[in-house]
Design a protein that fits this description.
The complex is a heterodimer of chains A (298) and B (305).
Chain A lengths: L3 H4 L18 H35 L21 H4 L7 H32 E2 L3 H13 L2 H14 L10 H25 L3 H9 L4 H30 L2 H6 L6 H8 L6 H28 L3
Helix pairs in contact in A: 4-7, 4-9, 4-11, 5-7, 7-9, 8-9
Chain B lengths: L1 H9 L7 H5 L1 E2 L3 H28 L2 E2 L7 E2 L5 H9 L1 H32 L4 H9 L6 H12 L4 H8 L12 H26 L2 H9 L4 H12 L1 H17 L2 H6 L8 H10 L5 H26 L6
Antiparallel strand pairs in B: 2-3
The chains are: A mainly alpha (298), B mainly alpha (305).
């Protein structure tokens, strides 16, 4: 499949074909194989460009020297670096960013711990209620975000107010832990299932007790999955808008800030912050891949 | 080292079910591990859903706006569904279209990543994920400006007289485009995962057996990637059907609103809207869980997770 010539039969007796097989002329097949070979790659590159278009837009408009709103490009004095020099210049933008980072951090830690425990229980043990546990983890992921947000708002407003929990920072944290949890479980579960059981058997053959087998063999092997799950949880939490919008009350997270300020035009500082986070995350991922491939040469 | 060799010879190569052999029977430990996370999901997922369900059946006091009493008022569902049937239809239609377009764009990309990319595979994977590190609200608003009437795309389309009313934003085209864009990676990644698992030699065998490119694709490649396609379909359709941000930011006030917009505005802007919003939420959820259930029955949940 890697090269078109491999799929083109250029020799071989016609009589050897099974009866009823359709034979196409080799030239036509050559052309279609050539197109098929490159078609996927050309479309793939176009789709990737499409994916990056709004990111490029965000980047370009972070240099716009606008007066009232950052919607149309102002050629006078553009491009300018002033937004990059003062990313907190727009009122509220850095407060929202800090809130998002705090929520993301707490939700990630909590969801990762709870989710990892759940994943271990569901993969490593057979017990009555395991099927129900799997369903409980799965269904939140199949539920539309708006339903999660609506139901949480209902319970917060009608139930938890009585114990003094008001809509705000902590209700956002609670909601984020809830929807990140399932994704952590799925990620860690996948890692646990892909482990070679012989490694753990070997450890116990070498007289390691269950505790040291776990901490010296199992845990280090699962750790990449846990780290991946934590990164996934953070990015889900940081980018969430729909659920947050339902349960946040007056507290503003970064996506909510952008959404609320869009009618007046988003300040270019939001573009600066959005693009910087993009750069930061990409650097992290690239570093992770480089380290990962350096560790296990294939 | 000899112990490792011994183990290696004693047990067969790890099979997909090998993890089952290491599974233990526990009495208390698994429940202990399960307890904190399970409780969290019960308190903040199951209980709120039950509460939402009771709200969807509540009736309002006619003389006290904003107050409800416990009831089994099935009429809430009937009135919500008749009043907002167009929005429901639009949600399903737009999400279906977005899923279809996402499939058309995602399949070549996933195929190229799995079979053509070679050493660029890792880089392409990063490129698929990377845009999602920019806030999705920020990207959706960027699309609004790109597709705006004074933007390049609308100008070209207008010069060619492609747009009946001269706009892209404020129409369903923009909403579907936004949905397609936002959920595309959810389609790419599962298809890629199932294609990557496929043995390229099986596809080559299709060619060796004198099938042409298209026949090989239709009878070998596509069926092998079917679990990924279906998982991608669900992962795209579910969030797209419940979305209201794209319709809000890219659509117009009247003709493009989806059921998500109705739920949001019934909750926040309409007094006495809670039961209607709850009934709509529940209908949406039932519909989607029904789809997921059909999928799980046919293919099992493992491919989805």
């Amino acid at each position: 499949m890697s090269s078109p010539s491999m799929t083109v039969p250029n020799s071989g007796p016609r009589g050897a074909q099974p009866a009823g097989a359709v034979y196409r002329p080799s030239f036509g097949r050559r052309v279609s194989a050539w197109i098929a070979d490159r078609f996927a790659m050309i479309v793939a590159i176009l789709v990737l460009l499409y994916l990056f278009t709004p990111v490029a837009y965000t980047f370009v408009f972070s240099f716009n020297n606008y007066h009232k709103s950052n919607i149309t490009w102002n050629p006078e004095g553009s491009p300018t670096l002033k937004h990059w020099k003062n990313p907190c210049g727009a009122p509220g933008v850095c407060d929202a960013l800090v809130t998002s980072l705090q929520v993301g951090f707490i939700a990630t830690v909590a969801a990762t711990v709870l989710g990892t425990l759940l994943a271990f229980a569901l993969v490593r043990y057979r017990f009555p209620g395991r099927g129900a546990g799997n369903v409980l983890v799965f269904v939140p992921m199949a539920t539309p975000e708006i339903v999660l947000g609506a139901s949480l708002l209902t319970i917060f407003v009608q139930g938890f107010v009585r114990v003094g929990l008001r809509l705000g920072f902590w209700t956002i944290v609670i909601a984020h832990i809830m929807f990140c949890l399932s994704f952590v479980v799925v990620t860690v579960k996948a890692r646990l299932l892909s482990l070679d059981p012989r490694l753990e058997e070997a450890a116990s053959d070498l007289y390691a007790g269950p505790g040291s087998t776990f901490w010296k063999v199992t845990f280090p092997l699962v750790l990449p999955g846990i780290v991946g799950a934590a990164l996934l949880a953070f990015s889900l939490s940081f980018d969430d808008f729909i659920i947050t919008n339902f349960v946040s009350g007056n507290v503003t997270t970064f996506p909510k800030f952008v959404y609320v300020s869009y009618l007046r035009g988003i300040p270019a500082q939001a573009n600066v912050i959005g693009f910087s986070l993009f750069l930061f995350a990409v650097t992290l991922v690239v570093l992770g891949q480089v380290i990962g491939s350096a560790r296990k040469p294939k | 080292m000899s112990a490792l060799a011994h183990v290696g010879s004693a047990s067969a190569a790890p099979t997909p079910g090998a993890a089952d052999e290491t599974a233990k029977r526990g009495r208390f430990l698994p429940y202990l591990l399960l307890l904190p996370g399970g409780l969290w999901l019960i308190i903040f997922f199951v209980v709120p859903l039950v509460q939402l369900f009771t709200v969807s059946l509540q009736s309002r006091f006619p003389e006290y706006p904003g107050y409800y009493y416990r009831d089994v008022n099935v009429k809430n569902y009937w009135s919500a569904l008749t009043e907002f049937a167009p929005h429901f239809g639009r949600s399903l239609l737009f999400a279906g279209l977005a899923t279809f377009f996402a499939f058309c764009l995602a399949y070549p990309l996933a195929y190229a990543m799995a079979f053509k990319a070679g050493r660029w595979r890792g880089l392409m994977m990063i490129c698929v994920i990377a845009p999602f590190f920019t806030s999705f609200i920020l990207r959706t608003i960027a699309w609004r400006q790109i597709l705006a009437d004074e933007g390049p795309i609308a100008r070209i389309a207008n010069a060619l007289h492609l747009l009946p009313n001269g706009h892209i934003t404020e129409t369903w085209i923009a909403v579907v485009a936004g949905l397609t864009y936002n959920f595309l990676p959810f389609m790419v990644l599962p298809i890629y995962a199932s294609l990557e698992r496929a043995d390229p030699r099986v596809i080559e065998a299709g060619g060796d057996l004198y099938a042409n490119g298209f026949t090989t694709f239709r009878t070998v490649t596509l069926p092998m990637s079917m679990p990924g396609v279906l998982a991608g379909t669900l992962l795209t359709f579910i969030p797209a059907a419940g979305d209201y941000v794209n319709a809000e930011l890219l659509g117009s006030d009247r003709s493009t609103k989806m059921v998500g917009n109705v739920i949001e505005s019934q909750f926040f802007k309409v007094p006495d809207g809670y039961p209607t919003a709850a009934a709509l939420s529940f209908t949406l959820m039932a519909l989607i869980l029904g789809m997921v259930f059909l999928y799980a029955r046919k293919f099992g949940t493992e491919d989805l997770l």
